[in-house]
Amino acid sequence: MAVTYASFSRRTRAKLKPLGAADFLFLAAWSATHLDDTYGAYLDEIEHGDARRVLRDALDAAWTVVDAGTLRSGTLDAGFRDELSAHLAAVRDIDIDDLDFTRPSDSGVLKLMEATEAALSIAVTPDPDPTDALTALWAPVDVLNTIKHGGALRPETDPLDDAFFAEELAAQAAVIADLQAQARLSGADRRIHRS
Predict the structure, then answer these.
(1) How many Å is the Cα radius of gyration of the chain?
(2) What's the gap between Cα 85 and its chain centre?
(3) pTM score of the predicted model
(4) Which residue from 24, 59, 2, 32 is spatially nearest to 134, judged by alpha carbons?
């Protein structure tokens, strides 16, 4: 059975309440990095290398903001915000209409794009709420839904305790707990709690 966004959101949103914009950005960039590590090379295989470069550049920019601590201190330079907005526009402009999102690799590419877009949206939005962080955290779970069900339509149930999803959900819970404990995570931690 599939994990539904509604059940995932209910469980995860409560954990995000004490966190701020810098933490939301870390979570989104962390999730996008995992998807890039898992599905990014597929873009090169299917001759979408330009899209991969756009996504990599956008993720690098997001990690630069994480490392600079500018969201935590509220000192994001207007010029850099404009640069992040340009990366966001470039990500949104990627054309992947030829992909079949019922296939796990294609779904992974779509979710990589969504998570990267969410990270950039957090970075450019003054006082962001957790919605974009939730979108980014949902992305790898939704890819797992596609893998588990072969892209077929899935019954809407609430199997958050299904062992198939346990590794991803445990990694998310661990990084959220680190942030709740006010750990100063940086780009060096971009693969923390990932095997």
Answers:
(1) 16
(2) 17
(3) 0.91
(4) 24
